[in-house]
Every structure is written in C-alpha cells, then in structure tokens.
UniProtKB/TrEMBL annotation:
This is LysR family transcriptional regulator. Keywords: DNA-binding, Transcription, Transcription regulation. Residues 1-59 form the HTH lysR-type domain. Belongs to the LysR transcriptional regulatory family. The keyword DNA-binding applies.
Length: 314
C-alpha cells in the first residue's frame, strides 16, 4: 500500500469509526489496518490518532490530514469519472445501492440485461433499506423512494409508487364488505414497522379535495415488506400495500382491492440518484436500462392489477 492509499485508509477509519469496521469491510485482519496507519504516522512524522481500548479520536494534525484525504478522494473520483467519458464502450466498476425489494425485483434484471450489452462493466450491488451517503460510501447510483435530502445529488424519476388496500375473499366474507373508513380503521391489519418507523397512516383526498388520512389497526407488525403481503394472503388481516409489492395475488384471486372509491395518495416516487450531473456514460446507460425494465410510462408492476388506472382515483 502506497502513501496515498494509506491516507485514504485513514479517512475510512475516521468515517467508519474503528479499525475493526474497516477490517471487516476489506476482509483483512484488524492488525493490518493498524500497521498501515502507524506507517502513515511514521511517514508524516506526526501522531494522527489518539487510541484507547474503546475509542479513536483525531489529533489536530490528524484532522488536517483527513481534510487532505477527502480532497484526494474527490480528485481521484473526478479524474476517473472524466476518463470514463472518453471510453468508446462503458467499462470499469459500477457500484449501486438500492432498497432491498426493488433491487431484487428490478435492479438485478437490469444488471443482467446490461451485462449482455456491456460485458466490460463490473457491478457491485448493495441491497439495504437504510439511507446511504452516496458520496461518502462511494456509490455511483442509488435507487430509492423519495428525493434525497442531499440537494447536491442528481435525481431522475423512475416511476410512481401507488398504493391499494387489499384483503382476501375469505376475510371479506368473514367481516363483510368494507365500505367506510370507520370499518377500515377498526379491522385487523398488517403493517410495516422498522427502527423508529411505523407505517400505519395513509393519505387520501376527501370529496372536497382536502388531504386527510386514515390509520390502520395494526394487529400484526412486521419489518419486511414482502411479509406484509404474505400475511394478508393468509386471510387474517387486511393491508395497505404498494403496487410494486403485488405479484400474481390479485390475478389469481388470492387478494381483492377494497375501498377503491378512495382517492389514495401515492406512497412516493422511485428515483435514481447519482453524485454528478456529468455522470460517466455507464451510469447514464444503466439508468436507461433500468427505466426500460421498469417501463417508460406505466411501471410494469401495475400490470399485475387489472384496471388499476381506474382504481383509487376518487
């Protein structure tokens, strides 16, 4: 490892907060990371980190070196990006982050299509439902619902994420047709929950066009979106799901849309996000590929819901 690499390693240690986390990410022994940082301190002739058994902190010199490392990383990334734009064919590594379900359903399909046309592009796909720092963690593209809070990121709309209310025929037979909001809110429902998050409220427009919301009776809470659908299919609860979550359940009669007269608000919008407006050609081409896989106008997942364009429109 040369001097610039050790300087960038220092930045990783600071950003991840420990030698151990960096060693796990790089799949090397913790002692290797520690030795490289000590070597960097020897080369510079200054102490960079204050080490204790429980924590690390930067010295004044270390703080200055980390600032220099950030500038170096930015310069290297920009240099690589500019060089890639001169390639006749896309090549190199494309690092992608995506929410888990969307990644499994559509990003993977887009990668398979892309690899057939551009075999010199390598991929790294990370599926996780946390908010990712695109720049700090070095991702080229991210796919998420909602625009990022970081206004410096470039966004491209992929598709709407519409919602519907579903139940099984047996659930409806047991509880009767659901025709009022009072019924909807009183019946047992499956809802998604995560760390600091409970999705049990949904927006709609009333007869006057005013925004209102209803709240589900969350008798079953689960932290996996695919389990929400499986739970509702079991027939013990109803649920509010996104169209993307539906496979063949409605086509096969396992689930039925209910309360279709409500004008439901979208859950959000899927966006592709990337760090630079003048992105490498491989980034732009991959987003084009993903968009083609999902559908240019109507997202492919809405085709699993007959006459969906007529439902939940008020």
């Amino acid at each position: 490892m040369d001097f610039p690499s050790r300087l960038l390693l220092l930045l990783e240690v600071v950003e991840l907060g420990s030698f151990t986390k960096v060693s796990e990410q790089k799949n090397v022994d913790r002692s290797v990371i520690s030795k490289h940082i000590s070597r960097l301190e020897d080369e510079l002739g200054v102490r960079l980190l204050n080490r204790t058994t429980r924590s690390l902190s930067l010295t004044a010199a270390g703080n200055e070196m980390v600032n220099q490392a950030r500038q170096l990383r930015s310069l290297l990334n920009e240099t690589e990006r500019l060089a890639q734009n001169y390639h006749a064919e896309p090549r190199g590594l494309l690092r992608i982050t995506s929410s888990s379900m969307f990644g499994r359903q559509y990003v993977q399909d887009a990668i398979s299509v892309f690899q057939q046309s551009y075999p010199e592009v390598d991929f790294e796909l990370r599926l996780e439902d946390r908010v990712v720092d695109m720049v700090k963690e070095g991702f080229d593209i991210g796919f998420r619902i909602g625009k990022p809070k970081n206004s410096s990121l470039i966004t491209r709309k992929i598709a709407r994420s519409r919602v519907l209310i579903v139940a099984t025929p047996s659930f409806i037979e047991k509880h009767g047709e659901v025709t009022t909001l009072a019924q909807l809110e009183s019946l047992p429902a499956t809802i998604y929950t995560g760390p600091g998050l409970m999705i049990d409220k949904f927006g709609y427009r009333d007869a006057e066009g005013q925004r209102q919301h209803f709240q589900l009776n969350g008798s079953y809470k689960v932290n996996d979106v695919e389990m929400v659908v499986k739970s509702v299919v079991a027939g013990n609860t109803l649920g509010v799901v996104t169209a993307q979550m539906i496979q063949n359940e409605i086509l096969e009669g396992k689930l039925v849309p209910i309360m279709t007269h409500l004008e439901l608000e979208d859950f959000g919008t899927f966006y592709a996000v990337y760090p630079h407006r003048d992105a490498p050609i491989k980034t732009k081409l991959f987003i084009d590929t993903l968009k083609a896989v999902v559908g240019e106008e109507t997202p492919i997942w809405e085709k699993n819901i007959p006459e969906f364009e007529l439902l939940y429109q008020g």
